[in-house]
Each structure stands twice: as C-alpha cells, then as structure tokens.
Design goal:
Distance between the termini: 47 Å
Number of helices: 2
Largest sheet: 3 strands, antiparallel
Helix content: 40-55%
Radius of gyration: 15 Å
Order of helices and strands: HEEEH
Number of strands: 3
Low-confidence stretches: none
Shape: globular
Strand content: 15-25%
C-alpha cells in the first residue's frame, strides 16, 4: 500500500514524464532532475530545456500541492518562485 507521500511523488513523476514527452526536441537539449552546469547552484529543476544557440534556458519544476484548492496552488507557485529566482538571475547574467 502506498503512503500519501508516495502517491504524490508518483503523480508528480507522471506529470513530469508527460511534460518531457510533450516538449519538442527542436526547443533544445532536455535534461531531467539535474543541476545546471556552470552555476554554483545545487538546485535540480525537474526539467531544463537548454538552447545554446539562442542562449535560452527554460526551467520547469512540477508542483503537486497536497490540497486541491486555489490558495494551495498560489502558495506553491510563490514558494517555487522564491526557490528558483536566484538561479534565474544567475542565468540572466
């Protein structure tokens, strides 16, 4: 029997895998659950799409809030923004 956490992780991974399959390869190199090279960050976004030619990086971090209500989604979004803003700023520089 799965615990609630195991169930949420399975749901998270299913969403992540679905997104990876849906991203066109023409957008760039796709990595999953890896640190971003040439940064000091140890963060591991779920999905990173890197287009070296256009010097663009797209980070995707899937969130599956425990509660299915609007405030839970907004709180999860705010926490992800807080977590990844420093890395995004490093990449912009």
């Amino acid at each position: 029997m799965q615990t609630a956490l195991q169930s949420l992780m399975a749901h998270h991974n299913a969403i992540q895998n679905w997104l990876v399959k849906a991203i066109p390869l023409s957008l760039g190199k796709i990595t999953v659950n890896s640190t971003i090279p040439r940064t000091d960050s140890q963060l591991r976004p779920d999905i990173v799409v890197t287009d070296a030619e256009k010097k663009k990086v797209l980070m995707v971090d899937v969130t599956v809030p425990f509660e299915n209500r609007s405030p839970a989604f907004h709180e999860a979004q705010a926490l992800k923004a807080l977590k990844y803003t420093p890395l995004a700023e490093t990449l912009k520089a």
